Amino acid sequence: MRRFTYIAPTSREDAFSAFAAAGEGARWVAGGTNIYDLMKLDIERPAHLIDVTAIEGLDAIETGGEMLRFGTNARMADVAANETILRDYPVLSESLWKAASQQLRNMATVGANLLQRTRCLYFRNGAGGASGGAVIYPCNRREPGSGCAAIGGIDRGQAVLGASANCTAVSPGDWPVALTAMDAQVELAGPQGARAIPIAELYRLPGETPQIEFTLGDGEMITGISVPKTRAGRRSTYHKVRDRESYAFALASAAVALDMDGDTIRKAHVALGGVATVPWRSPEAEAVLAGKPLTEGLAEKAARAAFAEAKAGKLNGYKIDLGIRTLVDALSIAAERNS
Ligand SMILES: Cc1cc2nc3c(=O)[nH]c(=O)nc-3n(C[C@H](O)[C@H](O)[C@H](O)COP(=O)(O)OP(=O)(O)OC[C@H]3O[C@@H](n4cnc5c(N)ncnc54)[C@H](O)[C@@H]3O)c2cc1C
């Protein structure tokens, strides 16, 4: 057990001051369901934890304004069960209630969910746990420059889109995939002030520096997430395929929302999960679907376009077929919903 300090400030100002004073090794913590897990595995080694959940005003769920808005500390369970979200944006609700377990969703927050780290076997098992702290596997994400044991290793769970020669780890979250499809913005605040970025800009492809996963500045925190309201929300779904029907991460998933005029798609929102190194928007699939009546043939053409650039390793080739079928099914589920 490594020693660390813990404090829970109640204002943003106190939180930023505490972060700056703590210096090297300071980290935010919210529900703790990811960071504590990784501390026990000796993968995360913060010297100072600053809890954001006591900060006032960061847990609101707002559905009445021009945008949907979720404070970073809103709990996954509360957003999933919100009546407006359930009715008008099933893609958002489903992405949350199909994630983790009820106990975890009661603890975990919607802002920190965006920053959870990969479940890649080699990233998680290479240190700590049963090995008693000894490093077994190289992992560029955990130990930059050490190599990637997943490439040529047991790669059944690895990404087929967005991978590099240095890392093939899948982006694990469901909620970020739904938010990506729905053009969400992530609200950030830091010592330099506040800003908002499209969710796609929060994530970095692994490239040559897989250890740098997010674009947050030093000491910056997520304060909220906003989602533009759209009539496509009602005809939406988050379709998730996994090894078992609950309490498992996605092998393949698709977030879809359709703005339709009769049988014709005006605009489609499509993002993929479980198959890529970042939440994966598919403009290719969206372009195939736009302006056409949805048929099974068109859905398949769009899904094939989404995976046209996919590259498989030894054991994860099934993800391409599975991903295509998951997207085809998601399109048909969304289209059948009442607007
Ligand atoms: C057994 C298990 C199964 C799971 N299954 C799924 C699943 O199927 N699908 C899925 O999507 N997720 C799943 N999860 C992951 C879970 O959803 C995340 O652990 C959770 O959402 C993280 O939220 P948290 O508040 O607990 O984050 P924390 O663990 O507190 O923090 C996570 C990260 O965010 C940082 N952070 C926290 N708050 C802020 C902030 N305001 N600003 C900036 N940085 C911040 C922390 O420093 C840390 O790096 C599972 C987790 C477990 C343990």
Structural commentary:
The strands form three sheets. This protein has a five-stranded antiparallel β-sheet. Strands 9-10-11-12 form a four-stranded antiparallel β-sheet. The protein is globular, with a radius of gyration of 20 Å. It has a domain at about 230-330: 2-Layer Sandwich (Enolase-like, domain 1), CATH 3.30.390. Helix content is about 30%, strand content about 20%. Helix 5 (about 90-95) packs antiparallel against helix 9 (about 175-180), helix 10 (about 285-290) runs antiparallel to helix 11 (about 295-305) and helix 11 (about 295-305) packs across helix 12 (about 320-335). It has about 350 residues and is α+β, with helices and mostly antiparallel strands. The protein has twelve helices and twelve strands. The structure holds flavin-adenine dinucleotide (FAD). Flavin-adenine dinucleotide binds near residues 32 and 174.
Layout of strands and helices, then pairs:
Blueprint: E1 5-7, H1 12-22, E2 26-29, H2 35-40, E3 48-51, E4 61-62, E5 67-71, H3 76-81, H4 83-88, H5 90-97, H6 102-107, H7 110-113, H8 121-125, H9 175-181, E6 185-190, E7 193-198, E8 221-228, E9 236-241, E10 252-261, E11 264-273, E12 280-281, H10 283-289, H11 296-306, H12 318-336
Parallel strand pairs: 1-3, 2-3
Antiparallel strand pairs: 4-5, 5-8, 6-7, 6-8, 9-10, 10-11, 11-12
Helix pairs in contact: 5-9, 10-11, 11-12
The structure holds flavin-adenine dinucleotide.
Flavin-adenine dinucleotide is lined by residues 27-35, 37, 52, 72, 99-100, 104, 107-109, 111-113, 115-116, 172-175, 221-222, 249.
